Amino acid sequence: MEVSVPDAPVGLSTASVYPENTEAGFELAGELGYDGVELMVWTDAVSQDTDAVLALRDTYQVPVLAVHAPCLLVTQRVWSADPWERLEKAVAMAQRLDAPTVVVHPPFRWQREYARRFVDGVARLEADTGIVLAVENMYPWRAGSRELQAYLPGWDPVDQPYAHCTLDLSHTAVSGSDALAMADQLGDRLAHLHMTDGSGSALDEHLVPGRGTQPCEQLLEKLAAQAWTGAIVLEVSTRRLRTREERVADLAEALAFTRLNLAAGPQVER
User: How far apart are CA 103 and CA 101, in angstroms?
Assistant: First the structure.
């Protein structure tokens, strides 16, 4: 018997090195042996500059597997106050970086005009550019016993007509979703994975996989059995760590966990 490992690349989100910068994301991805990065476009000016990112890609010889559009609360003014313009710029950046995928969140509830056109607009951008726009599962916001539906048309992509989706396991922890069932329900629409973990609290924790309650091992084994080829990106929080050495240790553990459980999937007789 030989172990058969799927062709899915394992990448590092540049957000995983925060509070270090975008360059540190490329540097650590290359140093630790990741297959590439997912570029988080955020308040770091380098992350917003395609020429600067191209230089990092070439310097560290680390490809960009995906671009994460600036759709967080803290990035609402990056590039433009217009969410459509931000998404279109992210797609244009992905084209120049040879990144096949843009990760995007559904609109916030108060972005009503953007939300009204979001489903059709995402489909149009995909058709016009050939870039996969993988809409990410989110979660309801909670404060005590109160729950706020903060996203339109909703935080759960399963019942929406998106052609491509991103599955994030920290977000399934917050929403109380069954990650394995969500992967099954998305089927061929599952295009991108944020491999991370959560404990089920109201906080979006982005733990190193294996440190929370999510079925990280089982999902990786399932995808391996399916010979899934989408990108698996480690999007974990290391912001509370005190030193670069601690950050390196966590990111190395996350990569080893992911590769080990991908290899624990199907075995092939030779």
Answer: 6
- How far apart are the C-alpha atoms of 241 and 164, rounded to whole Å? 34
How many angstroms from the chain centroid is the CA of residue 75?
16
Instruction: Please tell me the distance from the alpha carbon of residue 68 to that of residue 139, in angstroms, as a whole number.
Output: 18
Residues of the chain with pLDDT under 70: 1-5, 265-270
Element at 97 (helix H, strand E):
helix 83-97
Interacting residues of 269 by C-beta distance below 8 A, sequence separation 6+: 1, 2
Structure tokens at 40: 């988080």
The pLDDT mean for the chain works out to 95
Q: Which residue has the tokens 């009503």?
A: 112
What domains can be seen in the chain, in order of their start residue? 2-268 (3.20.20.150)
Pairing of strands 190-195, 231-234: parallel
